[in-house]
Amino acid sequence: MRSRLAFLAASMLICTHAFAQDFPIRPIRVVVPFPPGGGTDVVARTMAPKMSELLGQPVIIDNRAGAGGNTGTEAVAKSAPDGHTLLVASAATAINTTLGKNLSWDLSKDFAPVVLLVINQSLLVAHPSVPVSNLKDLLALAKAKPWYVTYASYGNGSSAHLVAELFKMMAGVDLLHIPYKGAAPAVNDLLGGQVNVMFSDVAAVLPHVKAGKVKALGIGSLRRFDGLPDVPTISEAGVPDFEGGGFLGLVAPTGTPRAAVAALNTAAVKSLAVPEVRERLVALATFPIGETPEYFGRHLRSEIDKWARVIRAGNIRAD
Q1: What are the tens digits of pLDDT across the range 167-188?
Q2: Residue 8 domain-assigned?
Q3: What's the Cα-to-Cα distance from 140 to each of 116, 163, 194, rounded to whole Å?
Q4: Within this chain, do residues 151 and 140 fall inside the same structural domain, yes or no?
Q5: Residues spanned by the domain of 96
Q6: Which of the pair, 8 or 32, is modelled with greater confidence?
Q7: Which of 113, 173, 197, 274 could covalently link to 142 via disulfide, CB atoms 3.0 to 4.6 Å apart?
Q8: Which residue, 205, 237, 269, sits at the end of a domain?
Q9: How far apart, in whole angstroms, are the C-alpha atoms of residue 295 and residue 290?
Q10: Residues 127, 203: one domain?
Q11: pTM here?
Q12: Are residue 159 and residue 205 in the same domain, yes or no?
């Protein structure tokens, strides 16, 4: 019996080793569930060339936008679990896990974590007409005049919406939500003064901050952004322990061989360590992470739970 078990264990080890040597055997498709040109797409395309070089196969970015990211997510969930199809998961994926209607996928059950690529920073900005110069001023205004301060988001249930709702809960203020259909119209109305404030990815509003078109009030992560060293974190500026950034990471369909996950993880981690890759990601206000699949798995569970609490507390509904 022992000899048989030993034989089976050795056979599995040999098969795993053989798979690792053969993987990948064709191009790897990385599905970005959003249109080209956005932050998720840019990060994926920054990573792809170096990963392709390390894996010895083309890494092709496939933009499959629709249904708030659910179209591309569903396509990957239903794909063959062989390591050749991946999804760029984000805070939106974690949010949709709770907020989505009639989903055909479950982030915790239908996907295997591969690697946490980056942590995104969000930035709270205000139109120059808003009579505040820092976060404490904004909090004082919002508390003195509930629902007076308006904030823009990319739409009901978007990451920008959920981050603002988390801020409201932790700061104990009431802000009026003005949802838009996407980041571009939201930023445009902020620039035009139709809305007062907004939580946005740093990269989307950084040029406007530097041009003086909006005021930066606070960074949504627990560390400052090197590109705006004088802008405090929201945590240090008046809302202790606030952390409202996002993340981007690679996941594969559940059942993907561990050897494939390991190979993909190694390629991604090595790519993140390349100086030119790191520099470009940091310039986008994203912190390269890397780490193991297990590390990313813990992060995913934490994000799902975090946004589920916000959704339920705020009684939030998707469009």
Answers
A1: 999 999 999 999 998 888 999 9
A2: no
A3: 37, 20, 21
A4: yes
A5: 25-119+245-313
A6: 32
A7: 173
A8: 237
A9: 9
A10: yes
A11: 0.85
A12: yes
